Recover the amino acids of this structure.
């Protein structure tokens, strides 16, 4: 076969589109520069960059609220930590598996979804992920806006007395988030690298306040750690299992769109070690901060305060309130942009790559986050943990299982990059751009968890919804795809389209 027909280039196990293939795709309706596979020289993120990304995303107020919310629901501090650690170890498995395609081929999530759903069908999965991300964007922005409002209120009594102040703070913080996201991946990388150390200082400061405040009451650290669980007898699993599903759901979004970030990694080792070092350790550590400080509020205030903004506002010292609220704002900012804007921006761009850029997608995400009314999602700990986290996790578990089955079991990690951006002539076109077998898998895998939401006798399936949906999809998808050959690339075909380069 002629050398000029080779559309992808492989160097040390990493693939990129050839320049000739990029030129040929320039006018294609399914291709733009934001969705194009990263060039090898663009893959510059080291283990530190990826670990810092996860530190920046994990040390956030929703993590704190997850831990404090479990305590407010009745678990003891160590039960809450165990729940969070276990949930993050479980979700790390599909996250690491789906990261591989991003690093190997440089593709973002909406393009990765084309493998299973088809060129057009990927819109379904990408927008489903985008809707969840928009909700998270709104939640994080509302939290950050509350922190900003606390800072200004500590400086101005008139501001504190103004009933509309929270809305002004919310939209100012919203604009800051959208602006940084609009600048793109380099700005996100810079912010995460510098934000991680600041977030560590914030964690230490919260712990110091908790110890000092508790000591002032005549109690001590042992009193915090000895606080008993408050759930009613026989209700432990009714809290622990939904809490576990909520914890898995917390990062189940990133388990899908992790290629959006792993596509910038220098190597598979960098992305693997960065995530292993950055995610479970940071989540468990900051969750401990959450349960420890929440335990302190039980002793100091007589009730668990699960909202850290309320804790900071109640400290009493204007300087401490300002510094604490600024720390919360930084923690929220670093997480919000990376975790909740990149995926929906790429997903929205995928709807019409020729007309919608990543930047326009970021703006649309910002407005969608407001439309999700985050103030309602954060009304109570139950609404946050079990209604929001527990519900969307039911729909994302099957997607994660399907992607793992498609990439590893069906395709054996072999992809034709050029065909991912073509139309009817693509091997990933299936029928009219959609793979109905992926849609069937999603529906079948979601039936039991969804029924569990409405039928009390089947509540277990909802309480463990993400895991059940993941396993069912992992088993069903390869069976449905058994006789599908239109998208399978045989080794000899890969050799025909790939130029091998040894360095």
């Amino acid at each position: 076969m002629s050398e000029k027909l080779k559309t992808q280039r492989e160097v040390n196990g990493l693939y990129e589109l050839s320049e000739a293939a990029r030129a040929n795709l320039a006018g294609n309706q399914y291709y733009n520069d934001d969705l194009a596979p990263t060039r090898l020289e663009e893959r510059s993120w080291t283990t530190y960059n990826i670990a810092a990304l996860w530190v920046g995303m994990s040390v956030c107020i929703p993590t704190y609220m997850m831990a404090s919310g479990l305590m407010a629901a009745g678990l003891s501090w160590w039960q809450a930590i165990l729940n969070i650690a276990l949930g993050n170890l479980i979700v790390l498995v599909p996250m690491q598996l789906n990261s591989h395609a991003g690093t190997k081929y440089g593709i973002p999530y909406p393009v990765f979804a084309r493998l299973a759903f088809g060129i057009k069908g990927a819109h379904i999965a990408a927008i489903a992920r985008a809707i969840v991300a928009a909700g998270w964007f709104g939640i994080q922005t509302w939290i950050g806006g509350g922190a900003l409002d606390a800072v200004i209120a500590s400086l101005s009594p008139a501001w504190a007395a103004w009933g509309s102040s929270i809305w002004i703070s919310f939209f100012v913080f919203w604009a800051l988030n959208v602006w940084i996201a609009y600048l793109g991946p380099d700005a996100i990388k810079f912010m995460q690298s510098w934000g991680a150390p600041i977030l560590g200082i914030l964690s230490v400061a919260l712990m110091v306040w908790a110890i000092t405040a508790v000591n002032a009451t005549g109690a001590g650290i042992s009193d915090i750690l000895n606080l008993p669980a408050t759930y009613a007898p026989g209700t432990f699993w009714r809290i622990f299992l939904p809490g576990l599903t909520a914890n898995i759901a917390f990062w189940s979004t990133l388990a899908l769109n992790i290629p959006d970030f792993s596509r910038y990694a220098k190597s598979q080792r960098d992305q693997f070690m960065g995530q292993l070092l950055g995610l479970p350790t940071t989540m468990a550590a900051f969750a401990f901060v959450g349960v420890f400080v929440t335990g302190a509020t039980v002793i100091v205030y007589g009730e668990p305060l699960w909202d850290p903004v309320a804790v900071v506002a109640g400290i009493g010292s204007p300087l401490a309130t300002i510094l604490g609220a600024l720390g919360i704002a930084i923690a929220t900012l670093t997480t919000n942009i990376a975790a909740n804007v990149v995926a929906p921006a790429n997903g929205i761009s995928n709807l019409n790559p020729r007309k919608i850029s990543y930047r326009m997608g970021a703006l649309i995400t910002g407005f969608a986050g407001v439309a999700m009314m985050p103030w309602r999602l954060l009304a109570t700990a139950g609404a946050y943990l079990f209604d929001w986290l527990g519900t969307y996790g039911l729909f994302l578990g099957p997607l994660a299982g399907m992607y793992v089955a498609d990439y590893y079991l069906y395709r054996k990690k072999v992809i034709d990059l050029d065909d991912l951006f073509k139309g009817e002539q693509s091997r990933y076109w299936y029928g009219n751009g959609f793979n109905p077998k992926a849609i069937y898998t999603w529906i079948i895998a979601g039936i039991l968890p969804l029924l569990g939401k409405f039928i009390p006798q089947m509540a277990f399936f909802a309480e463990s919804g993400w895991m059940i949906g993941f396993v069912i999809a992992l088993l069903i998808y390869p069976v449905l795809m058994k006789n599908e050959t239109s998208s399978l690339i045989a080794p000899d075909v890969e050799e025909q389209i790939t130029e091998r380069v040894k360095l």
User: Anything to note?
Assistant: The CA atoms of residues 252 and 396 lie 7 Å apart. The chain has a mean pLDDT of 85.
